[in-house]
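Morning!

This is the sequence you dropped in the shared folder:
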Amino acid sequence: MDLNAANERGPADLRACVSFLRNNYSETQIKTFLLSNGTLDIEKMDDYSGLVIRAFGEIRQLFRDKARKDIRRMAGIVP
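The structure's back. Tokens below.
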């Protein structure tokens, strides 16, 4: 997969995921993103942000275990 291919969906999704991991957003930042991207029940925001944090924790572990070294480096994951 060519990560620099701008016209392919797969690389764009992977680049977005890598970018999210590299930035290592705080729970407050994640809540802000969630609120700005739609109408969510504000009383469940802790649940929503917790889900995002857990999901990206699992993706981070998957990258540690399976990703190529260059992708781990791009994501800010030290082997």
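Headline: Residues 1 and 78 are 22 Å apart (CA to CA).

More detail when I'm at my desk.
O.
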